[in-house]
Amino acid sequence: MQVQIQALLARGAGRAGRQVGREEGRGGGAEVVKPQILDGTSAKVRGFITACKLYIRMRLRGEPVEGQVQWILSYIQGGSVDVWKENIMEELESGEIEYELVEEFLNSLKREFCGEEEESVKAAELRWLEQGGRTIEEFVQEFKRTARKSRYKGRPLVEEFK
Predict the structure, then answer these.
(1) What is the pLDDT, as a whole number, of residue 66?
(2) Which domain-ending residue is among 78, 93, 113?
(3) Which residues of the chain have pLDDT under 50?
């Protein structure tokens, strides 16, 4: 597995070697932070996916899906994700799986490590959410974020907000 990671890093050394950087000819001069290493902690998966999507949109948009998936895999290390990563890499190399869109891969990552209980946890969190010392704008943003993950919609969502 280390050989595969080294090969991935060597192939993308111009990009992967920097935490934050500018790349000429791609996405202008805007700096984009690369995602933190994902170790399979379910609480970190959504943030990791968001960071990957942003970086891909800003820096890797023209890369083939396979390259984007391999780039994401290079940021998945440690804990329970190592075995999952090895399995995915073997399936990719053997042609057992092929992703047409990077979102398909990210969805499989989310299914594997977010856990099904997140919706019920977020629904409970939504019920107990209070403004506290936050401004109304801060509270509304927190409510929206929690509501998205809870899958509440329509009238039940309005009732929870009240």
Answers:
(1) 94
(2) 113
(3) 13-25, 27
Q: How far apart are CA 98 and CA 66, in angstroms?
A: 8
**Are residue 50 and residue 68 in the same domain, yes or no?**
yes
- 108 and 81 in one domain? yes
Global pTM?
0.59
Q: Is the distance from CB of 59 to CB of 18 less than 8 angstroms?
A: no
Residue 90 one-letter amino acid: E
d(CA 70, CA 49): 14
Q: Which domain holds residue 153?
A: 118-161
Please choose, from the candidates 62, 76, 54, the residue with its C-alpha nearest in 3D space to the C-alpha of residue 8.
Answer: 76
Q: 107 with 122, same domain?
A: no
Distance between CA atoms of 66 and 41, rounded to whole angstroms? 24
pLDDT at 38: 94
Phi, psi of 38 (to 5 degrees): -100, 125
Sign of CA dihedral 139, 145, 147, 153: positive
Task: Collapse the DSSP code of 118 into the 3-class scheme (helix H, G, I; strand E, B; otherwise coil) and give the result.
Answer: helix
Burial class (CB in 10 A: 0-12, 13-18, 19+), 43: exposed
Are residues 94 and 132 located together in one domain of the fold? Answer: no
